[in-house]
Amino acid sequence: MRKLGVHTSIAGGLHRSVERAHALGCTTVQIFSHNPRGWAVKSISQEEAAIFKSMKTHFDVSPVYIHTSYLINMASRDSGLKKKSINLLVIEMDRADTMGADYVVLHPGSASGDDQYVSRSRAVNALNEVAAMGQWNAGLLIENTAGEKGDISSTIENLSDIINGVKESLIKGICIDTCHAFAAGYDIRNDKGIQNFSDKIEKYIGLDNVKLIHLNDSKGDIGSGVDRHEHIGIGQIGSKGLKIFICYSSFRNIPLILETPKKRESDDSHNLRKVRKMIRSLGD
Ligand SMILES: [Zn+2]
Ligand SMILES: [Zn+2]
Fold first, then answer.
1. Number of structural domains, the chain?
2. Residue 27: which CATH number?
3. Alpha carbon 15 to chain centroid distance?
4. What's the confidence (pLDDT) of residue 281?
């Protein structure tokens, strides 16, 4: 069975995220392990961790992905911000291990005003500092970004440069976001475009290293560089494109997490229903 989930809220306790995922019929989940817009992070009690783990086992929700805070910027020029980013990423990894989460997902960072090679090597150095600060069971996944100004990770080659520069023990693979890939100029709406994209991944990173797909439609057009997610099927990629993508041989066994907009209570179940229909049409 294809692993399918959404990003759920931890309001009311960490374990509530797993309950919410289960209630939506999900078999995998992504969460923030704390408020993603604040630097201050309260530690997880043993009791909280135990409840989270037993809930995850009880409902058989796995893998569990933790999305890192939006404040982290490994490519920052500001040494204070860089230091805080390194410390917070270490905390994210520690929390993942405490909760028994499988992966931590990171946007590698951005730094407008600098050459992207300079920014990227700064991020690589910062990630190596993190790698030197511990060993974790959870694997770090770096995510492709949409190509907004200052982005250092919108192409497969960019991701490969980061992976190759960082000590092996830390980064365990990549997360592909369909909205970001499309906004960065990859035409994933048809077989030919998806094959090109898949070939690139195989050549530079290896398809085995794709550990997660963020399945989002895109408000922005192809190559727009705009990171705005849209409901499944009503964006610029469209149902047909998303369906071809998730059913493509290279990607058909990779867990899917939706990060689609949530304005109404029914939004998640509505988007999940559309994706389930796409998966069913494949016959597994
Ligand atoms: Zn994403
Ligand atoms: Zn995004």
1. 1
2. 3.20.20.150
3. 20
4. 85
